[in-house]
Amino acid sequence: MQKDEQLQILKDLIQIQTPNGNELAVSEYIGKLFDRYHIDYRIDRFGNNRANLIAEIGAGETDRILAFEGHQDTVAVSDPDKWTHDPFQPVITNDGKLYGRGSADMKSGLAAEVISLIELATAKVPISGKVRLIATAGEEYGTPGANRLAADNVAGDVDAMVVGEPTSGQVIYAHSGSLNYQIKSYGKAVHSSIPDKGINAIVGLTKYIDAEAGLFDKAATDPFLGTVKHSVTLIEGGEQVNIIPGYADLYGNVRPTLSFDNDHVIQAIETAVDKINQETDYHLEFSLIHNFHPVETNPKNPFIQLVDQAAHDSYSDREVKADIINGATDASVFIKNNPKMAVVVLGPDAWKMAHQVNEYTTLTSFYETIQAYQKIAERYFK
Question: Could you tell me the keywords of this UniProt record (predicted)?
Answer without folding.
Answer: Amino-acid biosynthesis, Cobalt, Diaminopimelate biosynthesis, Hydrolase, Lysine biosynthesis, Metal-binding, Zinc
